[in-house]
């Protein structure tokens, strides 16, 4: 069993700067957990504390039921894949992968067997005699993963492994990593700033911001039920639209959200109880671009027609992103590519308010 | 009208190219001339040495004809030295002292550089700067107080005192080069090795030394040069022939009273220069690469 836990972990540097402000996290055996967040949120620091490369200022790190704060990295039975691969430049691919096993005095046959097995899983068997400088970026990253796999550790740690690769290669390697996890079901902690990687790879996503955990949950839960404005705006690409608004009495007896004098969006009845207590308060309306689309005559419950002045049109092939300004606030809608949209024209749209989110502007809490 | 405008534009562009070309020619010629001056300056003494070493004593003292040409070349100077037991002794002493100095200096420098650049203990930054600053103290000042110390150790007139002293000349600079070189190795390599299970010494031996090999070769060549060509310390501390190294042995043995045996002296200089020449010829590329690579990150 290889669970990983962080209990009230704090990392403070000399100047009183706290990179990690007391986080609690439990990772189950075989789970693939992604720590995601903007630069400086403390995700890499947390990973390095789990690895033992950084000292924990206070709190406890548990691996497999033991407190490992004072255990050196080599004895924690972990393996790490770095952002810039950290391959030993003077050794061949085989020796790079075998290095850890040689240090631990594994017999030659066992080393050979493990390296060949890992090379087979990662499809790098023809590269075993090459030196790192003769490999492409994707190949190097696979060797780095191979070095981790042969160790057969309790936990895999990935520190932004795809950040140095070009976009196409990143997509390809993402699938490879997911396949490897399906084959070698080791507990994995994966750090990235790319929320798409987080959504596609994780069993659970931990969104971090400014040294704190904002929300932990399965990718779909974070997408549909974000707990804070930060998570709502971070998950999903393009980002959610945020519009200052007011909850008021609507036209047909229900509640409505007033964005501007001309834009009043009726709240679906099943949410009236939830939002009722925020009547006449300034709130923030959150609506994803994919829930703001071209106008259809067939209305469904919760759908409302709204017209907005077009600012910029971005055809993406599969869809078209249309950008608007509402009272100076940028808004983005995802429409069918067949929709005709011209700058400085009014475009009729449907807002699917079943997918709306309402947030308190002061705390960012989603209500 | 557009034809003349474009014609004028072409003419202006051509003139600019012409003046750029011209200033480049001037710069090129200027540097060739300056370099030629330097080449002549540096190659003239060795050339003169070679010429003189091929002359017999008679021809040297005759002083007729051009001193730059050999009229009756002879190898008797070289032959004399090769069969001369004292000279053989000097060569042997130089080789022993140099090999030991290089070994001691490199061991100290590599270990010191590794700990100063990687093990980030309190005061390591000050210590690194301090190590380099000791290099700035001139040996010509130090040899007087060192005389007392060597005397107390009973090593005056014993070439083993050089094995003790030469590292003080080589270690500061070698450590400084190695610190620069080690610092340019990315820290993730350490961390990967730590996680793979390497201790500090294993990291040094299996990873740092192989990766930093050009820098190590450069530092080794420097230590070799310093110790092979050192003159002041052996002059101050060695008196009897059987203890002397090449640098002092040549001048004390081949200058008898006020008689300078120039032919033999020049031949001895050439023979003494052979090891550095051979080493530089084969390892020059490494030397330059090692110095510059360390310097950019240093």
Overview of the molecule:
The complex is a heterodimer of chains A (367) and B (298). By secondary structure, chain A is α+β, with helices and mostly antiparallel strands. Chain A is 25% helix and 33% strand. Chain A is built from nine helices and 20 strands. Chain B has 13 helices and two strands; from the N terminus they run H-H-H-H-H-H-H-H-H-H-H-H-E-E-H. Chain B has helices at residues 2-53, 57-62, 76-83, 85-118, 124-134, 139-152, 160-183, 187-196, 200-211, 213-229, 232-237, 246-254, 262-297, and strands at 255-256, 259-260. Chain B is flat. Chain B starts with a helix and ends with a helix. The chains are: A alpha+beta (367), B mainly alpha (298). At the A-B interface, strand 6 and helix 2 of A face helix 8 and helix 9 of B.
Short note summarizing the structure:
The complex is a heterodimer of chains A (367) and B (298). With 367 residues, chain A is of the alpha+beta class.
Features:
heterodimer; A: 367 residues; alpha+beta; six-stranded mixed sheet; five-stranded antiparallel sheet; 20 strands; 25% helix; elongated; B: 298 residues; mainly alpha; two-stranded antiparallel ribbon; 13 helices; 2 strands; disordered C terminus
Distance between the termini of chain B: 60 Å
In which order are the strands of the major sheet of chain A placed?
A: 6-7-8-3-9-10
What's the helix-strand series of chain A? EEEHEEEHHHEHEHEEHHEEEHEEEEEEE
User: In this structure, how is the largest beta sheet of chain B organized?
Assistant: 2 strands, antiparallel
Q: Strands across the major sheet of chain B, in which order?
A: 1-2
Structural class of chain A: alpha+beta
Order of helices and strands of chain B: HHHHHHHHHHHHEEH
Total beta-strand segments of chain A: 20
State the shape of chain B. Answer: flat
Largest sheet of chain A: 6 strands, mixed
What is the C-alpha radius of gyration of chain B, as a whole number of Å?
A: 27 Å
Stretches with pLDDT under 50, minimum 5 residues of chain A: none
């Amino acid at each position: 069993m290889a669970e990983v836990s962080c209990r009230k972990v704090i990392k403070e540097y000399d100047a009183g700067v706290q990179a990690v402000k007391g986080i609690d996290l439990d990772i189950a055996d075989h789970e693939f957990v992604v720590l995601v967040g903007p630069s400086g949120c403390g995700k890499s620091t947390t990973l390095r504390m789990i690895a033992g490369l950084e000292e924990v200022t206070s709190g406890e790190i548990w691996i497999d039921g033991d407190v490992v704060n004072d255990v050196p990295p080599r004895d924690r039975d972990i393996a790490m894949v770095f952002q810039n691969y950290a391959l030993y430049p003077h050794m061949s691919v085989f020796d790079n992968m075998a290095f850890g096993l040689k240090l631990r005095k594994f017999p030659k046959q066992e080393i050979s067997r493990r390296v060949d097995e890992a090379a087979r899983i990662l499809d790098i068997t023809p590269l075993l005699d090459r030196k790192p400088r003769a490999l492409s970026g994707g190949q190097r990253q696979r060797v780095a993963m191979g070095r981790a796999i042969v160790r057969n550790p309790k936990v895999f740690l990935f520190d932004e492994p795809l950040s140095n690769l070009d976009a196409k290669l990143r997509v390809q390697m993402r699938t490879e990593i997911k396949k490897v996890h399906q084959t070698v079901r080791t507990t994995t902690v994966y750090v990235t700033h790319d929320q798409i990687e987080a959504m596609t790879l994780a069993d659970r996503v931990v969104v971090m911001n400014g040294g704190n955990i904002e929300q932990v949950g399965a990718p779909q839960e974070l997408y549909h039920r974000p707990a804070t404005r930060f998570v709502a705006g971070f998950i999903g690409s393009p980002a959610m639209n945020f519009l200052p608004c007011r909850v008021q009495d609507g036209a047909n007896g229900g509640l409505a959200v007033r964005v501007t004098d001309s834009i009043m969006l009726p709240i679906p009845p099943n949410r009236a109880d939830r939002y009722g207590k925020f009547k006449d308060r300034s709130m923030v309306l959150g609506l994803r671009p994919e829930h703001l689309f071209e106008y259809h005559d067939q209305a469904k419950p919760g759908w409302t027609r709204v017209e907005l002045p077009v600012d910029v049109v971005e055809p993406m092939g599969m869809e078209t992103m249309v950008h608007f300004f509402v009272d100076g606030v940028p808004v983005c809608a995802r429409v069918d590519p067949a929709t005709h949209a011209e700058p400085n024209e009014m475009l009729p749209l449907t807002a699917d308010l079943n997918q709306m989110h309402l947030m308190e502007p002061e705390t960012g809490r989603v209500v | 009208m557009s034809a003349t405008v474009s014609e004028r534009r072409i003419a202006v562009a051509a003139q600019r190219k012409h003046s750029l070309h011209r200033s480049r020619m001037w710069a090129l010629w200027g540097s060739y001339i300056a370099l030629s001056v330097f080449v002549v300056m540096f190659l003239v003494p060795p050339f003169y040495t070679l010429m003189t070493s091929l002359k017999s004593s008679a021809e040297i003292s005759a002083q007729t004809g051009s001193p730059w040409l050999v009229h009756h070349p002879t190898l008797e100077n070289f032959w004399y030295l090769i069969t001369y037991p004292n000279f053989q002794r000097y060569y042997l002493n130089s080789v022993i002292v140099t090999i030991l100095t290089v070994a001691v200096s490199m061991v100290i420098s590599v270990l010191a550089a590794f700990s100063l650049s990687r093990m980030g203990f309190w005061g390591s930054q000050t210590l690194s700067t301090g190590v380099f600053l000791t290099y700035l103290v001139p040996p010509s000042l130090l040899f007087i107080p060192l005389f007392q110390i060597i005397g107390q150790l009973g090593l005056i007139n014993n070439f083993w005192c050089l094995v003790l002293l030469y590292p003080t000349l080589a270690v500061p600079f070698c450590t400084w080069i190695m610190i620069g070189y080690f610092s340019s190795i990315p820290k993730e390599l350490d961390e990967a090795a730590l996680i793979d299970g390497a201790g500090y010494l294993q990291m040094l031996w299996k990873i740092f030394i192989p990766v930093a090999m050009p820098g190590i070769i450069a530092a080794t060549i420097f230590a070799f040069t310093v110790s092979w060509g050192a003159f002041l310390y052996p002059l101050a501390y060695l008196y009897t022939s059987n203890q002397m190294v090449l640098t002092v042995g040549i001048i004390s043995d081949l200058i008898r009273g006020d008689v300078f045996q120039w032919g033999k002296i020049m031949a001895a200089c050439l023979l003494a220069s052979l090891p550095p020449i051979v080493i530089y010829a084969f390892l020059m590329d490494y030397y330059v690469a090692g110095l510059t690579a360390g310097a950019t990150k240093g």
